[in-house]
Automatic annotation (TrEMBL), chain A:
InterPro entries: Ribosomal_uS4 (IPR022801), S4_RNA-bd (IPR002942), S4_RNA-bd_sf (IPR036986). Residues 222-244 have a biased composition (Acidic residues). SUPFAM superfamilies: Alpha-L RNA-binding motif (SSF55174). This is RNA-binding S4 domain-containing protein. Keywords: Coiled coil, Ribonucleoprotein, Ribosomal protein, RNA-binding, rRNA-binding. Residues 144-207 form the RNA-binding S4 domain. One of its GO terms (biological process) is ribosomal small subunit biogenesis. One of its GO terms (molecular function) is rRNA binding. Residues 87-136, 204-269, 303-323, 341-379 are annotated as: Disordered. Belongs to the universal ribosomal protein uS4 family. Residues 270-297 form a coiled coil. Residues 111-131, 253-269 have a biased composition (Basic and acidic residues).
From TrEMBL, chain B:
InterPro entries: Ribosomal_mS45. PANTHER family: 37S RIBOSOMAL PROTEIN S35, MITOCHONDRIAL (PTHR28158), SMALL RIBOSOMAL SUBUNIT PROTEIN MS45 (PTHR28158:SF1). GO terms for biological process: mitochondrial translation. This is Eukaryotic mitochondrial regulator protein-domain-containing protein. Residues 1-103 are annotated as: Disordered. One of its GO terms (cellular component) is mitochondrial small ribosomal subunit. It comes from the Eukaryota. One of its GO terms (molecular function) is structural constituent of ribosome. Residues 37-51, 75-91 have a biased composition (Basic and acidic residues). It comes from Recurvomyces mirabilis.
Length: 474, 356
């Protein structure tokens, strides 16, 4: 495997999600066979296929893994099996009479009706059964490898990265740490990758290490600059909304949490305060342009005082007292927020959101009404306010599940990386639960009429030649 | 490359809402191939713009009440039907809105690798369907094979879904953060098998459930003359290929479906079929128990345990012939003279072959 995997002059398809790879895929053709000897054709096919399928497996290892018997299945129809004992296929002149079922299927096909599951064998347009694409299964033993399976389950952006995850100990097989990328999964094995690593691998890149914004569109060029700018603006607005709204209401929710978990442990109090600092920082970042210096100072003072409390806490202060101070800080933060000038908030919609947020907060927590906006509830359109509150709580739920956090190694809120959708598919031999970033290797990949389960970018001819290359030594 | 990325390749930068976004779905100019003669899309627009095709629930209910020919049950039945029709329509409209007027993907649009016509991105289970499978098996306690047959999901997949869901619930209970954002984004990019309760068509079969593996001994073509008058069945054919090979209806993962269908063809009614099924399940269970008991008896007979001061020593009869021709038989026991273990060599990575 060369250090630079994508060479535009000598294109090779690799197991990764890079844009170079996508470009190479888009112009991939079956290599011309004219003016080439059979050996040359096989050589080209084999080198193309190997560059994709087994860059991390040595040739000798692979030739030992290669198996000329390719696995396949035929799906049976239980109704057919119940009705016939098989003698109908040997009747007539020996090739079998046409059963009423087959006849019906043929009629349906003629009438242009879609294929049904009971037409046991998939048929081509000319009525003959679909061929089983065996050549595309040539590299099926490699799909058993742990690193490949991780990539196929969409847990990493390339096989190389999947290897790294395994080697670095982020991967478990059946709940036990597995550090060998070449581990051959057995049917029923469950592998899981650390969710944070998966989010990093599949998430959008950060602009810089200390920001949370993505650099998507950095390569857009002049053509899309307008759109790009709009995009960025829209995104920033969205984030502004989220974080501002977060300012106004998340604290109410968190406070509730804090109140509920009050006496339990010091960890919660600490976490809450860390959160507070982060939020204060966010206020600064979000509305730096329009925020007056005084307000900024106030916020900085706020975060410093939180820090001070934390250090005090570390030196052994009572938990209850700390929680009181947390409450105090929360109200202080809310007050600071209300004092923010309207134009410092990114958009009108934001302030709307905030109003509804305060409405929601007041609905949820009438006790905490240091906020002047809460004191005069909007009675005439209560319904709209409630609707807004519902919407907002849903949005907040989403925001809390996918928060803005500059400390993460990926752009937040999390979004898929560029060009991921063109490569996103999960083969049937894996069952993946994305929420816990785990997957089960159900069975070995198989071919069935019309369909091969080993994903390979090459056509049947190329794979047939590659298969023949490895067959040579058997 | 940059020209391509700014031109036809631009479509791939972000996922297409409500659809998959594969190379195979676009033409050379970067246009969605299925938009060319977009009859489906036009239809969708018409459906959306047409006035509410279904009458209002209140009006219909009132009319039913006034109609004296209807009994109370009829009214309930009709109300139920109206409810289902409404839910179906809502689901359709939601689906169309999500696709933004684009037609559904054709099979050719699901090719991530346009050259490989033998591969396409196949649907995965939607979140609703996974939840339903979990509820059916764990909470309602149905057995895996009947759930698999009902929902058209492979038996092993049902088991895997339950296993993964259990862990997910455990994480939720522990308060461990789930990768929800990732999950949502990925499931939007993939084709999914939906589960739409309360509609005309709640269950979409996910995959063929009775896959018959092609047995290696059936690969060679055999010329086997049989007389014309002979009824040459599956079982006979299997015996020709290999004396131990079972016929197809016994080798499929859910042979119970064949039995059920056979009983149906015999003209048994539902109660009789259920009774037979229960009887069959019971005998299968008994057989398994007998087997287990016999195994235990065999172990008791052949294995001796000698309690030591710190360890118990288990003795068992072995056969020295198991080592095979090369002396490295899989089930062979012990060290062989002149046969060094390769895995003891320096520099050989000892990758485990299984993890329990």
């Amino acid at each position: 495997m060369p250090r630079k995997p994508h060479n535009l002059k000598r294109p090779r398809i690799r197991q990764d999600w890079r844009k170079e790879n996508l470009y190479n895929l888009s112009r991939l053709t079956t290599p011309p066979a004219a003016n080439k000897t059979f050996f040359q054709q096989k050589w080209t096919a084999k080198s193309l296929a190997r560059a994709y399928h087994s860059p991390y497996v040595r040739e000798g290892t692979w030739t030992r893994m290669f198996d000329r018997r390719l696995p396949s299945v035929v799906s049976m129809d239980h109704r057919y099996l119940a009705k016939y004992d098989g003698s109908e296929q040997a009747s007539g002149r020996g090739a079998g009479l046409e059963t009423p079922m087959q006849e019906q299927a043929r009629r349906r096909r003629r009438a242009g009706e879609p294929f049904r599951a009971e037409d046991a064998v998939a048929k081509r347009a000319d009525g003959r059964p679909e061929k089983t694409p065996y050549p595309q299964m040539t590299f099926h033993p490699l799909e058993r490898r742990l690193d490949t399976a991780i990539w196929r389950a969409l847990f990493s952006s390339s096989v190389k990265q999947a290897r790294q995850f395994v080697v670095h100990g982020w991967v478990k097989v059946n709940g036990k740490k597995m550090i060998y990328p070449g581990y051959q999964l057995n049917p029923g094995d469950m592998f899981s990758v650390e969710p944070e690593r998966v989010m990093f691998a599949t998430g959008a890149k950060k602009k810089s290490s200390d920001s949370h914004v993505t650099d998507h569109g950095a390569f857009g060029g002049e053509v899309e600059e307008g759109e790009e700018a709009e995009d960025v603006e829209a995104r920033e607005e969205g984030e502004g909304e989220e974080s501002e709204a977060g300012m106004a209401t998340i604290e109410s929710a968190e406070e509730r949490e804090a109140l509920e978990t009050k006496p339990e442990d010091e960890q919660d109090a600490k976490k809450a305060m860390k959160n507070l600092i982060a939020r204060a920082k966010r206020i600064l970042e979000d509305s730096k342009r329009d925020l007056s210096g005084k307000r900024q100072q106030e916020l900085r003072a706020f975060s410093q005082s939180v820090k001070k409390t934390m250090s005090k806490h570390g030196s052994g202060k009572e938990d209850a007292a700390i929680d009181d101070t947390v409450d105090g800080f929360e109200t202080a933060l809310a007050e600071i927020m209300t004092k923010l000038p309207e134009d410092a908030k990114p958009t009108q919609s934001t302030s709307d959101v905030q109003q509804s947020a305060t409405a929601a907060a007041s609905a949820e927590q009438p006790t905490l009404s240091s906020n002047p906006q809460m004191s005069d509830p909007d009675k005439e359109d209560e319904y709209i306010a409630r609707k807004d509150a519902e919407l907002l709580s849903a949005a907040l739920e989403r925001a809390r599940a996918n928060p803005v956090d500059a400390s993460k190694p990926y752009a937040t809120p999390w979004q898929p990386r560029q060009f991921m959708s063109a490569f996103a598919f999960i083969p049937r031999y894996l069952e993946v639960n994305q929420k816990i970033c785990s997957a089960v290797y159900l069975r070995h990949p198989v071919a069935r009429p019309g369909l091969a389960e080993v994903p390979t970018p090459f056509g049947g001819e190329t794979m047939e030649l590659a298969f023949n290359w490895y067959l040579r030594r058997r | 490359m940059w020209t391509w990325l700014k031109g036809p390749g631009k479509a791939f930068r972000k996922p297409l809402p409500g659809s998959t976004n594969y190379l195979g779905a676009y033409d050379k100019q970067g246009q969605l191939a299925r938009m060319k003669n977009n009859r489906d899309g036009d239809q969708a627009d018409r459906r959306r713009n047409e006035p509410e095709a279904l009458e209002d629930e209140d009006v219909a209910a009132k009319r039913d009440m006034e109609d004296e020919n209807l009994s109370e049950e009829d009214r309930e039945l009709r109300a139920e039907q109206r409810k289902i029709a409404r839910a179906t329509r809502e689901a359709e409209v939601d689906d169309m809105d999500e696709r933004e007027g684009r037609p559904r993907e054709r099979l050719t649009d699901l090719r991530p690798y346009p050259l490989n016509h033998g591969f396409r991105s196949q649907p995965v289970l939607s979140e609703d369907l996974r939840e339903m499978l979990y509820i059916q098996t764990v909470e309602q306690g149905h057995d895996l094979s009947s759930v698999a047959a009902t929902f058209g999901v492979d038996l092993r997949r049902v088991a895997a879904v339950v296993r993964l869901k259990t862990i997910e619930k455990q994480w939720q209970a522990e308060g461990k953060p789930l990768a929800t954002a990732y999950s949502e984004a990925v499931l939007k990019m993939l084709p999914t098998t939906p589960f739409k309760p309360n509609t005309n068509n709640p269950v979409t079969p996910h995959e063929p459930i009775n896959d018959l593996p092609v047995h290696p001994s059936t690969r060679p073509q055999i010329f086997y003359p049989a007389s014309e008058s002979r009824s040459f069945t599956c079982e006979d054919a299997a015996a020709v290929f290999d004396r131990k090979l079972l016929p197809a209806d016994k080798r499929i993962p859910l042979p119970m479906l064949v039995d059920l269908e056979k009983w149906k063809n015999e003209g048994l009614n539902r109660a009789e079929r259920t009774a037979r099924q229960i009887e069959k399940d019971r005998s299968a269970r008994e057989e398994a128990e007998t087997k287990e008991r016999k195994k235990l008896e065999w172990e008791e007979r052949t294995q001796r345990t000698v309690p030591g001061r710190r360890w118990d020593f288990n003795f068992q009869d072995i056969s020295a012939e198991k080592v095979g021709k090369d002396g490295r038989g899989r089930d062979a026991i012990g060290f062989r003279y002149g046969m060094p273990h390769i895995d003891r060599k320096a520099g050989v990575v000892k990758i485990p072959t299984s993890v329990q």
